[in-house]
Write a structure and sequence with these properties.
The complex is a heterodimer of chains A (245) and B (332).
Chain A lengths: L4 E10 L2 E11 L4 E5 L6 H8 L7 E6 L2 E2 L5 H8 E4 L11 H9 L5 H14 L15 H13 L5 E5 L7 H14 L4 E5 L3 H7 L2 E6 L2 E7 H6 L1 H7 L13
Parallel strand pairs in A: 3-8, 3-9, 6-7, 7-8
Antiparallel strand pairs in A: 1-2, 1-4, 4-5, 9-10
Helix pairs in contact in A: 3-4, 3-5, 6-7
Chain B lengths: L6 H21 L2 H26 L7 H18 L6 H22 L4 H20 L7 E2 L2 E2 L24 H24 L1 H11 L1 H6 L4 H26 L9 H14 L5 H19 L5 H15 L4 H17 L2
Antiparallel strand pairs in B: 1-2
Helix pairs in contact in B: 1-6, 2-6, 2-9, 2-10, 2-11, 3-4, 3-5, 3-9, 4-9, 6-7, 6-9, 7-9, 10-11, 11-12
The chains are: A alpha/beta (245), B mainly alpha (332).
The structure holds adenosine-5'-triphosphate and magnesium ion.
The site of adenosine-5'-triphosphate has 12 residues of chain A, from β2 and α1.
């Protein structure tokens, strides 16, 4: 079966920096994949290549087998790929509901668009924020608004770059539930640093290191892999499951 | 805010326009009425930049280019056809096409904002220099001499469609200008309320996000820029009907002034630029009557004061003050 999204020897170099280096990665329909790796491993750059924000130096990107390397961002989005960027990217001056209506990118009538947008907001538990201007929201709320905008057009694949950054423990727990729920209808690739969170959403994990794929395996095996420990060594990230568990 | 229907604003525009047409020609002397027509054309020009800059987020230093092209387009066409009605589509098509072409190069060439400012300004200055150098008999288009520095003084005014022997008197030209201004305002409101306009505003807010949601940003920018060029051209057409066209229309002075009108009136509003244009024009005219004062100096002082005191512009500041007052009234 052809993968939903796959890369072949994908490279993105900035001068001498090999941010993404010959990455082969395939995401199946309906899959929930986690992408981890230390700072500067190339995770965000990889996402930028997938969404057409960077033109890869070499290699191919395929969507359902079709070559989409070098396509424009908007064209890739229309194929059904949504992204939540690492730094929230929002329409600061617009209201929450207007942002979600725009994100739907549909041409049906005003009332219908509004109803659908409200349904998305309710699903994410932020219907109460509908009339608020985005710029006035707290950090965790902004993350959820961006998530709502990504979910609204019902993409086949959702890329989430550190969705829980800056969230409280409680918000993180809710986000984990939400991601599992989203996974019923969408394939997801989630970049995360929080191992607890990764265990909670349990899936295949791909480990990036210096632009390359170091390991790709189940959560349990990845967490037990000494190579993964090596690349995270010196980092304060907690590696649950290592302390005899 | 975005969900509100702009019916009240549209009704207000219609009423104000009707009142202006009914009252001003009776109370103003001919000279003042012609001046009022000039104000109306300037207001259309300010509105055009208000749309492009305030909502499209495109700082165009060359809105005067479309103003001049509309004026010259009208003058040249009007001198070549018997019925000046036919000069209207030409006068509107030329600046709109120029904006579309320039916009295509800039937006599809993915030129950065800074260079966009440079390019629009350069195009305006090229037109300024070109029209200035068209003195002499060899520079004519059909029956229309371009006249170089002096411009085209004898432009025939609009006539009733199909009635070329009957040029409109100044009161009628004034009415046409006011109707055009109201129409542009209403068009602006409707555009901003449409799906297209809402995407344009979203792009102003965050271009990358719009792109990542699947909007082809270039198309929307081209659309709003072309609409702005069209409106700027209409302003030029009106101007040609009450003053006369000359290279000054392309000058740095005009390009700069339009930006000031929009800033002082309020970026991101439609009524603001209109108010800014009328007030500052009136101020400039008044300053011109003072002995030994340079009107540009006064305009500059007003700009500095306005930017310092009302960074958001007149209209948004006034609206916010009004809202605060109302809330205080409602509180107890
Ligand atoms: N536009 C750019 N120009 C030059 N170098 C870049 C650019 N973008 C990223 N890099 C470099 O590419 C490497 C990978 O960066 P990237 O942001 O993709 O890492 P990351 O895995 O997302 O890290 P983090 O966990 O900190 O978000 C880094 O060394 C970074 O400095
Ligand atoms: Mg990153």
């Amino acid at each position: 079966m052809t993968a939903l999204l796959s890369t072949e020897e994908l490279c993105m170099y900035f001068g001498g920096v090999r941010a993404v280096d010959r990455v082969n990665l395939a995401v199946a329909e309906g899959e929930l994949r986690c992408l981890i790796g230390p700072n500067g491993a190339g995770k965000s750059t990889f996402f930028r290549c997938l969404t057409g924000q960077y033109r890869p130096t070499a290699g191919r990107i395929r969507w359902r087998g079709r070559d989409i390397t070098g396509a424009d961002s908007f064209a890739i989005a229309r194929l059904g790929i949504g992204i939540k960027t690492q730094v929230p990217s929002l329409f600061e001056g617009l209201t929450v509901v207007e942002s979600v209506i725009l994100a739907q990118r549909r041409r049906h009538g005003e009332a219908d668009a509004r109803r659908r947008a409200m349904a998305v907001l309710e699903r994410l538990g932020i219907a109460g924020l509908a009339a608020r201007v985005v710029a006035q929201l707290a950090h965790g709320q902004r993350q959820l608004v961006e998530l709502a905008m990504v979910v609204a057009p019902a993409p086949d694949l959702i890329l989430l770059d550190e969705p829980t950054a800056g969230m409280s423990v409680e918000e993180t727990g809710r986000a984990a539930t939400l991601i599992r729920e989203l996974n019923r209808a969408h394939a997801l690739v989630v970049v995360e640093h929080d191992m607890q969170f990764i265990k909670a959403i349990a899936s295949t994990v791909t480990v990036f290191h210096q632009g390359r794929v170091l390991v790709e395996d189940s959560v349990a095996r990845v967490l037990a892999d000494p190579r993964v420990h090596d690349v995270y060594l010196g980092r304060s990230i907690a590696m649950p499951g290592t302390e005899g568990g | 805010m975005t969900g509100r229907r702009p019916t009240a604003e549209i009704a207000a525009a219609v009423v104000l326009a009707a009142a202006a047409i009914a009252v001003l020609p009776r109370v103003l002397e001919l000279f003042a009425l012609i001046n009022a027509t000039v104000y109306a054309s300037m207001a259309v020009l300010a509105l055009s930049l208000g749309l492009v800059w305030g909502f499209g987020g495109i700082l165009c230093f060359g809105q005067a280019a479309f103003f001049g092209l509309g004026g010259y387009g009208y003058a040249v066409a009007a001198l070549n056809v018997a019925d000046t009605t036919w000069a209207v589509p030409i006068a509107l098509a030329v600046p709109a096409a120029a904006a579309a072409l320039l916009g295509y190069v800039m937006f599809y060439g993915r030129i950065s904002d800074v260079y966009m400012g440079v390019i629009t300004l350069t195009v305006t200055l090229i037109l300024f220099n070109f029209t200035n150098s068209t003195a002499g008999d060899q520079w004519r288009i059909g029956a229309a001499p371009l006249g170089g520095f002096n411009g085209i003084p004898s432009t025939p005014p609009l006539n009733l469609p199909g009635d070329p022997g009957n040029p409109l008197p100044p009161e009628r030209i004034f009415a046409v200008a006011v109707v055009c201004l109201a129409a542009c305002y209403i068009l602006g409101k409707l555009v901003l309320r449409s799906r297209f306009g809402r995407v344009v505003v979203a792009i102003r807010e965050n271009e990358r996000r719009a792109e990542l949601l699947g909007y082809d940003v270039r198309r929307y920018k081209l659309g709003i820029f072309t609409l702005g060029g069209f409106m700027g051209g209409l302003a030029g057409l009106l101007f040609a009907n009450c003053v006369f066209v000359s290279p000054t229309m392309f000058s740095l002075f005009y390009s700069g002034q339009i930006i000031i009108w929009v800033m002082v009136g309020g970026l991101g509003t439609l009524a603001g630029p209109i108010i800014g244009a009328v007030l500052l024009q009136a101020l400039t005219t008044w300053a011109g009557t003072l002995p030994a004062v340079n009107p540009s100096l006064i305009l500059g002082a007003v700009l500095v004061a306005a930017v310092l005191a009302l960074p958001k512009g007149l209209l948004p500041t006034a609206a916010a003050a009004l809202r605060r007052l109302r809330r205080r009234d409602a509180a107890p």
